[in-house]
Specification:
By secondary structure, the chain is of the alpha/beta class. It is about 40% helix and about 20% strand. The protein has 14 helices and 14 strands. It has helices at about 15-30, 40-50, 65-75, 95-100, 110-115, 145-155, 175-185, 200-215, 235-240, 255-265, 275-280, 330-340, 340-360, 360-375; strands at about 1-5, 35-40, 55-60, 80-85, 105, 125, 160-165, 190-195, 225, 245, 270, 285-290, 290-300, 310-325. The protein has a 6-stranded parallel sheet with strand order 2-1-3-4-5-6, sandwiched between helices.
């Protein structure tokens, strides 16, 4: 089987790039003839089409990337295979996507979203994102690299470090986590809450709002926001340095950091919805807060008014849930339970590690891909 991978390549630390790179690496290690190219690089893609002549072109992204992931390969006689995350509706690409023999998605919830929005369920298969369990693994708190991470963040050796990682922290549930920490601040052992967010224009305003909330709650001295650019090499140490990973996200098509935290033997606080029903097990590897609110929209406005182009208003026949909000009370109760019980944290972390190794290790995911695609397309 000859596979051409289209994703954000060479890979930065982001989620879509990691998704593509873990499969690319796993395919090569499994002996597959695989190549990778940036999904937007039309000239280089065509170069691969001509000399490499792939059996299948796997594109990582969301439905809006269809011109790069689907239409471009098709124009050159290639077989596209999009591997999609959920992001809104499928817009003008419904017919294009429904004509494909196979679409991969990252979780059962993502499949439900696409079926809801008009794609045929029988062409959609779930393939989770792979995790590098060699890099993301448990590390001793006395490891100098782990100690250095905590020291740089201002976290003392005896403090409980709670961590959230995301493009922005608010969408990962950080504001609810802060509200929960404020509720238990007088009862809980000494703690620091660290939010690692990626530096980008859209998060600047959100970060300020989040820090204002911390101040209003009276916990600002215990909240640390870090917005530095970091490499993929640093992330395993950052996650391994925490005691609890907390990301009861508002919208999650897979939740790579939650899985990576499990691989590092860290218990997770999530939400009882979306992809976390696939990746986490309530009471065993994580505590899943109940859904306190669903944000439901009857219509959306797409595009922006620019250079004479007007935005488009879309009205849904059936109102759609576009966002989930976790129960702050549940988060508070689960955080306090984990913060007070080191043995429980260890037990849940070990169970989480075992689950990641069995289901989400990138080599396991790559073998699943080879079997699935081989059967669907008659390739070996």
């Amino acid at each position: 089987m000859k596979v051409l991978m289209l994703y954000d390549y060479p890979p930065p630390p982001g989620g879509l790039a990691t998704q593509g790179d873990m499969l690319f690496r796993g395919l090569r290690e499994a002996g597959m003839d695989a190549q990778a190219v940036h999904f937007e690089s039309a000239q280089e893609k065509e170069w691969y089409y001509r000399w490499f002549a792939p059996d299948v072109v796997v594109g990582v992204g969301y439905w809006g990337h269809a011109p790069h992931l689907v239409l471009h390969p098709q124009r050159h006689g290639m077989q596209p295979l999009p591997w999609l995350v959920a992001d809104g509706f499928i817009g003008e690409f419904q017919e294009t996507l429904n004509a494909l023999p196979l679409i991969l998605v990252t979780s059962n919830w993502v499949k439900e979203v696409y079926v809801r929005d008009g794609l045929k369920g029988d062409i959609i298969e779930v393939l989770p994102v792979g995790c590098d369990t060699d890099a993301f693994r448990p590390r001793d708190s006395k490891d100098p690299k782990i100690a250095a991470v905590r020291e740089a963040l201002g976290v003392a050796p005896d403090q409980i470090m709670i961590l959230t990682v995301g493009g922005d922290a608010a969408s990962k549930g950080a504001r609810e986590v802060m509200e929960a920490l404020a509720l238990i601040a007088d009862k809980a052992p000494d703690w620091k809450y660290v939010c690692k967010v990626w530096p980008q224009p859209r998060t600047l305003k959100q970060n300020l709002l989040d820090l204002q909330l911390a101040t209003q709650l009276g916990i600002e001295k215990n909240v640390v926001y870090t917005t530095n650019v970091v490499s993929r090499n640093f992330m395993p140490y950052l996650i391994a340095a925490c005691d609890i990973y907390a990301a009861p996200a508002h919208l999650e098509g897979f939740g790579m950091p939650q899985v990576e935290a499990g691989a590092c033997e860290k218990p997770v606080i999530g939400i009882k919805a979306m992809a976390m029903l696939d990746t986490l097990v309530h009471g065993e590897t994580a505590y899943l807060a109940g859904v306190a609110q669903e944000i439901i929209l009857k219509e959306v406005t797409t595009g922006e008014e620019e250079e004479g182009e007007t935005s488009q208003r879309l009205v849904f026949q059936t109102p759609r849930t576009v966002d989930y909000r976790p129960s702050v009370q549940d988060i508070a109760a689960y955080l306090l339970k984990l913060m007070e019980d080191g043995a429980l944290r260890k037990k849940m972390g070990q169970t989480g590690r075992k689950r990641v190794e069995e289901r989400f290790d990138y080599r396991v995911v790559s073998r699943r891909f080879i079997d699935l695609v081989g059967r669907r397309f008659g390739l070996s």
